[in-house]
Write a structure and sequence with these properties.
Helix content: over 70%
Mean pLDDT: 88
Number of strands: 0
Structural class: mainly alpha
Shape: globular
Distance between the termini: 23 Å
Number of helices: 12
Strand content: under 5%
Radius of gyration: 20 Å
Number of domains: 1
Length: 330
């Protein structure tokens, strides 16, 4: 068993589970409940920075031993991996959402102009959480440069570059340049870079994450930081970093204790991210808005359906329709 790979797999599965918690709300009033509201603030404080961090970690992990880095091949693979599913699934979802627009939180009109807008401006996308895909793609455009500085650079350069990227995070409004979420890419770059650094320095620092006291105190500190509900740039950064550290520590604990609570969804996290909208939204419309099921039962159904049904669909496509695998990121 490759424990390091198991820890990364567990970390990814934990991350997508948190994402599905954040996406499983049948009505805005659901998150106004004080306990639920805190849970959502807790999850949203770090779950997407965690995915950027994991992307940086995996990028260095998979490329650090490559002597001659082929930029064109690399970007071509990222287009296939990120942008092809982005365009295909967004296009598939657009007429569905337009048809049921009266039941949607963000109604859209069935027109070519509206469709183009949902593609070019990710925060207006039919599936709003797809903003992550073009954002990560833009980061990957400069990732080879970061790789060179990470692998070949001195520690002092690492510190300097970290400070520069952190200033960029603090200075840029995430929503200021909406085209392909360019400002979001500049904002989230810091977490991708920290993932790169973690992969490089993992051997010398991971022993701290393996301590149970570290896990306990990271949870306590994050709860305290989330309870201090202030929208301050550096505080948001600190919350995200503590949440990422907590997630790493929890993943290590689960793997070390051989607790395989994510075994069914392991290796299908990306497909859950891409396909869960169809299932969770369908559950919300049918059970909550049409049949009048309560908020909490609907939320549970949305969570379970969004987390597990995409895995069944992905496995079916993998076996029965292999030519379509690229369309769902397989």
């Amino acid at each position: 068993m490759n424990r390091k790979l198991d820890e990364i797999t567990c970390l990814v599965s934990l991350g997508i589970t948190l994402v599905m918690v954040g996406h499983s709300y049948p009505a805005v009033s659901f998150v106004n409940d004080s306990a639920i509201s805190f849970l959502f603030k807790f999850v949203y404080s770090f779950h997407m920075p965690l995915f950027m961090f994991i992307s940086g970690l995996l990028f260095i992990y998979s490329t650090r031993d490559i002597v001659r880095f082929d930029y064109i091949t690399f970007i071509s693979k990222k287009i296939k991996r990120l942008l092809v599913p982005y365009f295909f699934i967004s296009s598939l979802a657009f007429p569905v959402k337009a048809l049921f627009s009266s039941q949607a939180y963000r109604p859209i009109e069935l027109s070519f102009r509206s469709y183009v807008g949902t593609i070019l401006f990710p925060w207006s996308n039919t599936i709003i959480f797809f903003w992550f895909l073009p954002t990560l793609f833009l980061i990957f455009l400069i990732a080879p440069f970061l790789r060179d500085k990470a692998i070949c650079g001195h520690k002092n350069l690492h510190v300097l570059l970290t400070l520069v990227i952190l200033v960029l995070y603090l200075a840029v409004d995430e929503y200021s340049i909406p085209l392909m979420n360019l400002s979001g890419a500049m904002s989230y770059l810091i977490f991708f870079w920290l993932g790169c650094l973690y992969c490089l320095y993992k051997g010398s620092i991971e022993s701290y994450f393996e301590k149970r006291l570290f896990l306990f105190f990271s949870i306590v500190i994050l709860i305290a930081l989330v309870s201090f509900d202030a929208k301050i740039g550096f505080l948001s950064f600190l919350r995200a970093c503590v949440g990422i550290a907590m997630s790493i520590s929890l993943s290590k604990y689960l793997v070390r204790r051989k607790i395989r609570i994510f075994s069914f969804i392991d290796h299908y996290s990306y497909q859950i991210y891409l396909l869960s909208w169809f299932f969770s939204t369908g559950i919300r419309i049918v059970f909550f808005q049409l049949l009048g099921l309560g908020l909490y039962p609907t939320a549970m159904l949305m969570f379970v359906a969004g987390l597990f049904l995409p895995v069944y669909l992905a496995k079916f496509i993998e076996k029965q329709m292999p030519s379509m695998k690229v369309l769902i990121g397989l």
